[in-house]
Each structure stands twice: as C-alpha cells, then as structure tokens.
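Q: What would this chain look like folded?
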Amino acid sequence: MIFDTPAYRTALVAGLALARRAIATVALGGIALAAGAEEQAPAAPPAGRTMADVLAAAAPSDWRPLDAAHTLYLELDSGRVVIELAPRFAPEHATNILRLARQGYYDGLAVVRSQDNFVVQWGDPDGKRPLGEARATLPPEFTVPLTASLPFTRLPDADGYAPEVGFSEGLPVARDPRAGQAWLAHCYAMVGAGRGNEVDSGNGAELYVVIGHAPRQLDRNIALVGRVVQGMERLATLPRGAGPLGFYEQPSQHVPIRRVRVAADVPEAERSRLEVLRTDTATFDALVEVRRNRRDDWYKRPAGYIDLCSVPLPVRAP
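A: My prediction, written as structure tokens:
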C-alpha cells in the first residue's frame, strides 16, 4: 500500500521531528557528546512553504558576519571571489594559507585547471615561486577529533559516505562517532589544498574548488580548508581545460589571479559586507525541512529526503 495523503505526510514530518529530539547523548571514548543539545530547536520553528518564506522570517541573530581574520578575497579580472577558511578543521593549512596570502605568494599566479563536473584549480603554473616563510609540508588534517566542543547540526537522513552528516559553523560535515572523527565534505563550493601522493605534501600553495557533483570519494583523502561564500559563478563558468584532468594546455588559456588578500587587511570601505545563515538555529532546521519536502506550487510530490550537499547555505549582504 502506498501512503501519500496530506494527513500521512503531516504525521510523518511530526514523527521525524519527535525522533530527532529524542536523541539523548552519544558516548565516545569517555566523552559525552550532547547530541540532544546539538539538535534541540524551539517547538515551533519559523513557518514557511518555501526557503524564501523561511529566510524572510529569520531574526537578525540567525545570521553571522564573516570572520575577517579568516576570509580571503581572490581577485580575478572578472571580479572578487570570497572564501571563508575553516581553521577549526584545518588549522595549520589555514595558518599557512594566510601567511602565503600576506606575503603576496598568490598575486600574479593563475587558474590552471578547469575540469568539467569536478574542480577548478589555481597555483603556480611553473612551480618555481618560492614559499617564503610558509611551510612546504603540513600534517594531513583530513579529519579532526570528534569532541563535545565541536558544534554539529545533524541532518535526519542517511548518508552513503558516513554514519552521520550535518553542518558545523556553516560547513558541511560528516562524522563517525565510533571512530571519534569528523571531517569536512566535498560539496559544491568547498575549497581544498592540492597535494601529491604523499599525505603531507599539500601546503595550500595550490588550491581547488569543487564545481560539479560532490566528489565525496575525496573525503578524508585531502584537506578541505574552507568554502567559497560569494563569487562561485566566476569559477564555475570558466572554459573547461582540454588537457588531461582538465588542465589548460596553453599558457594563454590560464586565468590570471590579480591578487589574494586577507579581508582583515583590507580597508573597511573595500570589504565585501556579507553575512551567512547560522546552521545552529531553528531557522536553519526549518530551511532544511522545506528543502526536504518541497511544497512550492510547482512541486507535486515532496521527496522526504535531502542529501548533505543539496542543503543550501544562504549568504546575504545586510
């Protein structure tokens, strides 16, 4: 028998909400992870049939400004790309990338690769630019220890790559309570540090951004260091490279990088004023639900499911 009535769907949504709030704690190596606290939300989250309705009802406290100390401005001829780093998940990579940016390492380099449905990558085309005070090798930072201090808003649906998935401080995260590990996921707009076969060979001098279907097989095999919060269209629409792995075959095809700056070092008048929706709020819970079960006029059959990389992460200019 197929159940597809409004009453049944309403009961199903209510049952899922009750099940989520029933989670108490997850014990891990003597550490009590307050899973219940992670997922608690007011009994009546902001109502809305669409994501636009949910965001219109959001309170000012549901938004947070970008951390200027860990935000990069990648300046291309086409305009600015804003990248927020993830020091909680890749602290040594973040430090090294900030050091490279401040000493002008990226200035004048180029986008050298644009592989269809995969990544855009930038770095030194010749591989000869000195790193200066930056480190040449870094620890892998593919995962971090799963602790009670790591905020986490869990999604209600199953994932094929990890026991649990959700969001932490605006980033898509997977975790394994038994192994005591958490890691960033390769969703669209996530930024990673390219490396060779050696796990410590990624130092941030070569960066890439996901522009296609989420290549989750890369999770825990390479360090993700942040995500693009504005300007993805300037990278995702670049001409595809015809060489192996999407590398441009001719230097004339390279896309020049004018400059990379740390937002905190940029005069106030020149900064991009942006806020991102917090992922630890009832508003975000409501957003997830309206995307899991689309009730826009166009949709006739709600899916009742959402993939980690399909959850939107709204950004606004206040």
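Confidence is low (pLDDT under 50) at residues 1-48.
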